[in-house]
């Protein structure tokens, strides 16, 4: 293998580095051992780290995390090239083609020529989308046409939702697809009523498990009911136009922040471990109160 190109801003440099890492003759043993399946968890993790940098508003970290995510794309593409399936250039070509194909309101009539030249379409009769909602409707219609052209037999309104998504995200997408054909609650109030109903069903199954912890059927029903409860929670967030992932990340960050404050408060008393729950609750309340006071101090 030759040395990597000198310019680190050139994508060919990264491609050459990955090829060198995967080279059987002098490459990295760890990188050579990896497969699509072994790298997939890292790909998911890097995507979440990008989201975390965005949540924190840290643009310097976002640059680094986007680089880590790009590395995942290059890694997968390199393994595919070694297998004779496709190369990084094919990945780029595929997404360029898809973006042009799914944006007829931008690239209509002149199509790929406009994309290559960076020009806006100007031919008579071109398609124009009136707003973002119309763009999304067109996008879904084009996706359905693409699946039909590939010979995919699934014509359900729920077709095309990846099974590899985090389950909370898949739940929201299933609900969104069903809503497009009218199968949806009219607003958040009936969803809240359904949430209370599911809580009672979970309570009943918890009681059944408590009565006989060895009852496998009761445990299976409990898992089923908790799943229903979580599905309704995702639906409530959707109706409230709240991103489930962002809301959960916010809750996680709040818990971590307050728990760390609890630990700091309890340090003078020997730490949290071994203290009764009532005492730990008092530290939690103190942490919450300190957080509230800090917010009020910064409010104009």
UniProtKB/TrEMBL annotation:
Molecular function terms in GO for this entry? nucleoside triphosphate diphosphatase activity
Fetch the PANTHER family from UniProt.
NUCLEOSIDE TRIPHOSPHATE PYROPHOSPHOHYDROLASE (PTHR30522:SF0)
Q: Where is the NTP pyrophosphohydrolase MazG-like domain?
A: 34-107, 189-258
GO BP: any one term: dTTP catabolic process
Q: Which segments show compositional bias classed as Low complexity?
A: 112-127
Q: Which Pfam families does the entry mention?
A: MazG
Q: Which domain of life is it from?
A: Bacteria
User: According to the UniProt record, where is the region Disordered?
Assistant: 112-132
Task: Report the protein name in the record.
Answer: ATP diphosphatase
């Amino acid at each position: 293998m030759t040395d990597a190109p000198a310019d680190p801003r050139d994508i060919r440099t990264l491609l050459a580095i990955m090829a060198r890492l995967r080279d059987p003759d002098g490459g990295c043993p760890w990188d050579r051992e990896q497969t699509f399946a072994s790298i997939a968890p890292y790909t998911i993790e890097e995507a979440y780290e990008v989201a975390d940098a965005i949540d924190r508003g840290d643009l310097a970290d976002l640059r680094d995390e986007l680089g880590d995510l790009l590395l995942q794309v290059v890694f997968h593409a390199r393994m595919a090239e070694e297998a004779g399936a496709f190369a990084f250039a094919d990945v780029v070509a595929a997404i360029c083609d898809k973006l042009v194909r799914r944006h007829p309101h931008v690239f209509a009539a002149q199509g790929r020529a406009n994309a290559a030249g960076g020009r806006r379409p100007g031919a008579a009769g071109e398609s124009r989308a009136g707003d973002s909602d119309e763009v999304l409707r067109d996008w879904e219609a084009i996706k359905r046409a693409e699946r039909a052209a590939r010979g995919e037999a699934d014509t359900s309104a729920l077709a095309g939702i990846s099974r590899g998504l985090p389950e909370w995200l898949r739940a929201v997408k299933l609900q969104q697809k069903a809503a497009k054909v009218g199968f949806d609650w009219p607003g958040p109030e009936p969803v809240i009523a359904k949430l209370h109903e599911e809580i009672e069903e979970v309570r009943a199954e918890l009681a059944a498990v408590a009565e006989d912890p060895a009852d496998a059927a009761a445990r299976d029903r409990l898992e089923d009911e908790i799943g229903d409860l979580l599905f309704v929670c995702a639906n409530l967030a959707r109706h409230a136009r709240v991103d489930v992932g962002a809301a959960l990340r916010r809750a996680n960050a709040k818990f971590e922040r307050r728990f760390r404050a609890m630990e700091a408060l309890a340090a003078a008393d020997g730490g949290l471990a071994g203290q009764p729950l009532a005492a730990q609750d008092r530290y939690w309340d103190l942490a919450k109160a300190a957080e509230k006071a800090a917010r009020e101090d910064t409010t104009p």
